[in-house]
Design brief:
Chain lengths: 271, 209
């Protein structure tokens, strides 16, 4: 019994250390476990895949640095997918910190695909007041966004010609670690029948699956795993794919911890 | 190994380690990073709020384009800010009342439609055993019904009613388990993200993947 007593009162810092080693080791010695693609991510991929050069996708970077690890890889991958299909991309943010993160990615990835600001993509920037902004965009994008992030009026941006409201946008993908994604459902999908998809943190994913089942959203990218699936689909392994082995090993370690903890608990209870 | 020449990257590495030092125990480095992130976030947010909100939505239209109607929301906004002055705090009630009224009026129907009506519709699906999807539809139907019964507190959970409520508890537990699993995954992803940043971006070591 002393063994279990000792084990159950183990210093939590040892557990942290074990988890840290379990995460770091696979980054250097990968096991290369396959990444199975789920239908909720495949749906988004198929949707973008079927869009032609006239297609317009709006990516809303509604996240900040605290969820960067999960949401940035899926934002980057969506952007890469759209650019590789020559789909026109609009990028905006309803979250103050999202605008800086999105701009960084946009500039880097646009360069990879030789895309030009104003011709192939448009960066609308940030506006405060999520619901009001979305509703305004339903009437006319130029109401909440008279100009882009850099101050150029939308009427002077070639890409924005003919794009006036949601009826001119094929798909909206909102990336967020907050309830902002639901605002897109309430104020873009419901009143304007806008097709929407979500890229959310893993914590949120389980809450949002019902909306997938009810076909209110096109697809759902959940956490780093979802991002890795998307990277697999476009054959561009990135940060999410790099982290998948580490994630799997850490999960195995946590399962072992949970089993040991429960055995210890039962043994101690008998005593 | 190719160390990053960017000072910004090393500042980020230092702050990451400051935050992780909390795992050992609370310390001044953690406190410093914590306060810094709050201060920087608010400062950054305020600048954006002005440059992307007030400037294009009030200053430019009002002063440069002569759209004087914009004075109305500007006055309402200023009245909300009056909460900061105790003597005039009562002025904030008017725009707050407007916000609550308009917000509820706009939000409630849409929330009901998307969050309740459409979700109810999604439970009205073909059920049976001839097709795998139909079997899953039974699982959904039983789940919705039993969980709703569990949350019905006006009748004692006894007999058949209690039995169905118990099934609801099982559904809830599975739901909590799934959420917990996803939460573990999310937290680990954040840690992996930081590790990848330190190893790849700062130290310049290419990891596999």
């Amino acid at each position: 019994m002393k063994f279990w007593e000792k084990l159950l009162s183990i210093d939590r810092r040892i557990i942290y250390l074990v988890i840290a080693i379990t995460v770091i080791l696979p980054l250097f010695v990968p096991t290369g476990w396959p990444i199975n693609v789920t239908y909720e991510v495949k749906n988004i991929y198929d949707y973008v895949e079927n869009l032609g050069p006239d297609g317009v996708v709006l990516l809303s970077a509604d996240y900040d640095a605290s969820t960067l690890a999960e949401l940035q890889p899926m934002f980057d991958t969506s952007l890469r997918h759209c650019f590789s299909r020559d789909v026109k991309v609009m990028v905006m943010s309803l979250y103050p910190q999202g605008v800086g993160l999105a701009e960084m990615s946009l500039k880097r990835i646009a360069k990879e695909y030789n895309k030009v600001n104003g011709v192939d993509y448009c960066f609308l920037g940030y506006r405060p007041g999520a619901s009001i902004i979305i509703m305004g965009m339903g009437s006319n994008i130029r109401i909440p966004f008279p100009s882009d992030y850099y101050g150029t009026p939308l009427k002077d941006i070639p890409m924005m010609k003919g794009i006036n409201n949601f009826s001119d946008i094929d798909l909206v993908i909102s990336f967020s670690g907050t309830g902002i994604v639901a605002s897109w459902l309430y104020y873009a999908h419901e009143p304007y029948n806008q097709d929407i998809a979500w890229g959310v943190t893993a914590v949120m994913a389980s809450d949002y699956y019902p909306f997938l089942q009810s076909h209110q959203i096109v697809g759902l990218i959940g956490g780093m795993k979802g991002a890795a699936e998307y990277e697999t689909l476009i054959s561009k392994p990135g940060l999410a794919t790099s982290g998948m082995d580490a994630q799997s090993w850490a999960h195995i370690m946590i399962i072992i911890f949970i089993i040991i903890g429960n055995i210890g608990y039962l043994a101690m209870r008998k005593k | 190994m190719h160390l990053s020449p960017s000072i910004g990257v090393w500042v980020a590495v230092f702050l990451t380690l400051c935050v992780f030092s909390f795992l050992y125990k609370d310390n001044p480095f953690y406190k410093f990073a914590e306060h810094l992130v709050v201060g920087v976030s608010i400062g950054y947010g305020m600048v954006l709020w002005y440059t992307q909100g007030i400037l294009p939505k009030f200053v430019t239209p009002f002063f440069k384009e002569g759209k004087y109607i914009y004075i109305i929301p500007a006055i309402l906004g200023t009245m909300i800010a009056m909460q900061l002055v105790r003597k005039y705090a009562w002025l904030a009630r008017f725009p707050m009342a407007f916000l609550l009224g308009a917000g509820s009026g706009i939000g409630l129907p849409r929330t009901m439609q998307a969050g309740v009506i459409k979700q109810l519709e999604a439970t009205m699906v073909p059920m049976g055993f001839s097709h795998l999807q139909y079997v899953w539809n039974i699982v959904i139907f039983v789940g919705v019904l039993s969980v709703l019964i569990y949350f019905f507190f006006s009748k004692e959970h006894k007999g058949v009613f209690g039995g169905i409520a118990n099934i609801g508890i099982w559904y809830l537990m599975i739901g909590f388990g799934a959420t917990f699993g996803y939460t573990v995954m999310a937290r680990l992803s954040l840690f992996i993200g930081r590790m990848l940043f330190i190893i790849q971006t700062a130290l310049g070591v290419q990891v596999a993947g």
